[in-house]
């Protein structure tokens, strides 16, 4: 370890920034999060720094750096972009024993700046000893994703309780267990959700031996997106980290589970078309059972819970049982798949309406407003429509849709085995059959790249059914051979 990590107390401390450009402004922005008195020495400064000086937030000395400027400073930053001037500031600081940081010059510095995750009073500093700042930024982004934006509120609340808890619970072991219950349990969730009165109630109950604490846990209905784990929201990641139990749908990418706690129990409730299925009633019972036992449950669903995800049924069952439940939205498959292949779902002057419909139903007949869907200027995405592709095609054509209406099918969207095919409404049935499209797929109808002035991506296959000439005597079945453009 070349650099020893420390946190400097800058309350009422003087800090010098040498330089007035953008790099200096970046240092000032960071320093203003502390209680330091910041002085900027430079012949010219940015408008941002000038305004801060006018407001009295910093002190600006409009001249070149002089060695005497480092006297009495807690820290010195050199950010002039002029190596001669930066080296002079470094030498002056070192001569007075003042820690100095020179931007992009670790050889002139006595300390370096880490990547910082700011959840004050919780602060995480990440350093690579200047070897690979890009890796530090990667680590920072992962930590940022795991910590709620208001995580500091929990630490501040804990800081304010230290004396009270030390006085109320003198036994060290009991006090440690109390802190674990407060900072990892219902008190934590109440503070982070902004429920101050609920947090006070839980705190009072804990300090009186746990009387009156809620006996049940809670459930989060989490949208895990179409497959790519990088599309998870920050809140989804946070809920995964908190969960004691994961109730997992079939379409959830197994890689998503890697973000959960290793000790979290996993309950798989997949619904395989034509195969083993867990009924919705049984899933509801599992959620109620686990939450009633006091566990934190994450119900993981593909896409978004409120778009053909049956979240309303699960929410109703949980509310009826008196169990707290919240919904974490996810990136829905239609938008993710369209984005992956660069297919705009609305286009000015061309497509002013975009709908999302289901292509499957428990009823005998798929009842959709075919006239509205076939109208000119209308575009829509069909979920779970592969099995009913012939029915969808026939009804749209019967309702007046043009046979050449563009169709794009995205199979296994955002997964490694993703496949995208462009065809027409006339050829939809043959395309699905001959290309053996069977995985989870979204069928887009009425959208075309050319309408937006875009080129079709090379990765998108084009399917056209080979037409039989009028005078051909070829057997009809042979005339349906697919023509696929690479």
How would you characterize the overall build of this protein?
This protein is α/β, with parallel strands linked by helices and 486 residues long. It has four domains: 14-113, NAD(P)-binding Rossmann-like Domain (Rossmann fold); 151-207; 218-331, Cobalt-precorrin-4 Transmethylase, domain 1 (3-Layer(aba) Sandwich); 340-485, Methyltransferase, Cobalt-precorrin-4 Transmethylase, Domain 2 (2-Layer Sandwich), CATH 3.30.950. The protein contains 15 helices and 19 strands. A seven-stranded mixed sheet has the order 13-14-17-15-16-18-19, sandwiched between helices. Strands 3-2-1-4-5 form a five-stranded parallel sheet, with helices on both faces. Helix 2 (47-55) links the parallel strand 2 and strand 3 (59-61). The protein starts with 13 loop residues before the first strand and ends with a strand. The relative contact order is 0.06.
CATH superfamily of the largest domain: Tetrapyrrole methylase, C-terminal domain
Count, helices:
15
Task: Report the radius of gyration as a whole number of Å.
Answer: 31 Å
Strands across the major sheet, in which order? 13-14-17-15-16-18-19
Oligomer: single chain
Strand percent estimate: 15-25%
Architecture (CATH level 2) name of the largest domain: 2-Layer Sandwich
**Structure class:** alpha/beta
How widely separated are the two ends?
A: 54 Å
Overall body shape: flat
Major beta sheet summary: 7 strands, mixed
Residues in helix, %: 25-40%
Count of discrete domains = 4
Low-confidence stretches: 472-483
Tally of strands: 19
CATH class membership of the largest domain: Alpha Beta
Average residue-wise pLDDT: 89
The CATH topology of the largest domain is Methyltransferase, Cobalt-precorrin-4 Transmethylase, Domain 2
